[in-house]
Amino acid sequence: MSDAPEREVVLITGSRVGIGQYLARHYVERGAQVIGCSRQPVEQELDGYTHFCLDVADESAVQDMFTAVNEKFGRLDILINNAGVGSMNHILLTPLATVRKVMEVNYLGTFLCSREAAKLMRRRKYGRIVNMSSIGVSIHLEGEASYVASKSAVEELTRVMARELAPFNITCNLVGPSPLETDLTRGVPAEKMEAMVQRLAIKRMSTFADIANVVEFFAKPESDYVTGQIIYLGGP
Amino acid sequence: MASDTSAGENARKAKIVEAIWSVYAELVNFEGELAATEKEEIRLFGTGSKLDSFELVNLILDIEQEISSRFGVSISLMDERAMSQRTSPYRTIQTLVNFIDTLIGEGDE
Predict the structure, then answer these.
(1) Is the separation of the CB atoms in A4 and A75 below 8 Å?
(2) E-strand spans in chain A?
(3) Of A67, A119, A167, Cβ closest to residue B61
(4) In chain B, positions 73-92, which contact chain A (CB-CB < 8 Å)?
(5) If exposure means fewest CB atoms within 10 Å of the residue's CB, which of A89, A148, B2, B70 is most exposed?
């Protein structure tokens, strides 16, 4: 018997740390039922939050998670594909295994979670999918070829999904954060981060709140006529 | 023994036809009766189909659920030949029955 809630059901990938963790808390505080996932377990329990340990590129594990979401909550309103990995390296020094791993998590993970989420969302003819890109795509960021290529793939996937899923009243949009301090950027030299900031119209780094603001805009019910769009933060 | 197996397979295929039909008839608002062979000849994809691509996607996903609830097995009807006019398993109810029967059979092995 599913305890189908009246409250919003939100699934956030890569929710153990960083922006994913921030968004999970943000939506829990708003009264949503939040499901999160990451490869490692979370350290803190949170009321209204359910965590799954999995690799978003593992098809059967992802399918099992969405089956569990369906059985427990009977619906899914919002998917935020936040899980991602980076790799800073010159293309001539990048092993193929690194490229494959980045593409698997960033692109395949987004594809898999979106596909399974849309299957759930279509039943209620309502859904919001928000994917994560990066200003690295818009500025063709050197030294991040694998990461930028994977995010570019996510952008085009999102635009096509926007068209294919529109008949189900599912919108698909993207946020492209400017530099921010996360596990992903911890290894990036400070001068490189600063150089990126100087290329922006608004010369500061992103905050989690900046990102959550745009995610929330795309995800709210009133944004039902907004799809296939990307907002790059900071004005690259 | 061979005839028992064959009878069992035929009974399963008949159950699959009914599962598909229940979803299809509701989707196209079909009222009336058809023989099993007439149902199997109905085109789901390509020339002669009454379904647009959106309805076809809905049909396939709803059939997945129907098969799951009637047979107690979870199958995936995703297939790389989905949009092939020549080899798509969704061409007719009959080709879809065969596709599903094979998937259920694989699960039994």
Answers:
(1) yes
(2) 9-13, 33-38, 49-53, 78-81, 127-132, 170-176, 230-232
(3) A119
(4) 74
(5) B2
Q: Is the pLDDT of residue A184 over 60?
A: yes
Taking the CB of residue A198, how many other CB atoms lie within 10 A of it?
Answer: 8
Give me the residue spans of the domains in chain A.
9-232
For residue range A59-75, list pLDDT tens digits in order: 999 999 999 999 999 99
Q: What is the ipTM of this complex?
A: 0.78
With cut-offs at 50, 70 and 90, classify the pLDDT of residue A2: very low
Question: If one looks up domain A9-232 in CATH, what number appears?
Answer: 3.40.50.720
* Residue in A closest to B60 by C-alpha: A119
- pLDDT-based confidence at residue A193 (cuts at 50, 70, 90): confident
**CB-based contact, B27 to chain A, within 8 Å:** no
Q: Does A167 touch chain B (CB under 8 A)?
A: yes
* Mean pLDDT in residue range A8-31: 96
Give me the percent of chain A exceeding a pLDDT of 70: 96
Known catalytic residue at A107: no
- Region of A230 (left: φ > 0; alpha: ψ -120 to 50; beta: rest) is beta
User: Amino acid identity, residue A130?
Assistant: V
The verdict on B54 touching A (C-beta cutoff 8 Å) is: yes
Q: In B, which residues are within 8 Å of A70 by CB distance?
A: none
Closest CA relative to residue A81, chosen from A110, A118, A52: A110
Q: How far apart are CA A226 and CA A66, in angstroms?
A: 25
